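Q&A log
Question type: sequence-to-structure
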Amino acid sequence: MLKDNRVRIICGHYGSGKTEFSLNYTMELKKIEDKVAIADMDIVNPYFRSREKAKKLTEQGIKVISSSISGTALDIPAVSGEVESLIIGEEWNLILDVGGDNVGARALGRHAEYLKACEYDMFFVINGYRPETQNKKDTISHLQAIEETTGLKVTGLINNTHMMKHTTLDDVLLGQKLSVEVSKELNIPIKYISCIEEVAKELPPELKEICITTSLIMRDSWMS
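Response status: OK
Response body:
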């Protein structure tokens, strides 16, 4: 697992759990790679941003890149120029946590030329409980809108269908069914399943092989 291209772009529908997956993926990657960086590319949504957990990540030796202006509470449409240098260079494993839908994905526009020139993966996160991605048609529509906006191709799907800490095996399997339908239609592989530890233990063996156990990092204990 995690033998993906050096630059990983995480995108998807607003509220699908992109940032939660990005953080957990990044921490898993740090276990096997020395130089790992995550860039908060979300300049649209003021909630649940990866940069809000910078202290936790930096303590693990992960480089965190966010706005060019210091301060996690500032809603400003800017992303550090350091992102570009890490894309061009070959030294760092880089995760780009992109904003929701094609609007949020526009932040990739200034980097598109460099991304196309390097080996990248773009993972589309599917949450079958989001209102606008509950069926194959709508999910594909969102995916293709992001591709059109960025000029980049999705290379893998992530099943992140959940009900937060109340997630059951049935929830994940529902999302897997949808993910399989999208995968077959677009010929894009399902790269990972993301779910909480309790459910991960219940997955069939073939699904456990692609499972990244998710800690609810972005959700405080009082949140449902």
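Response note: The first helix runs from residue 18 to 30.
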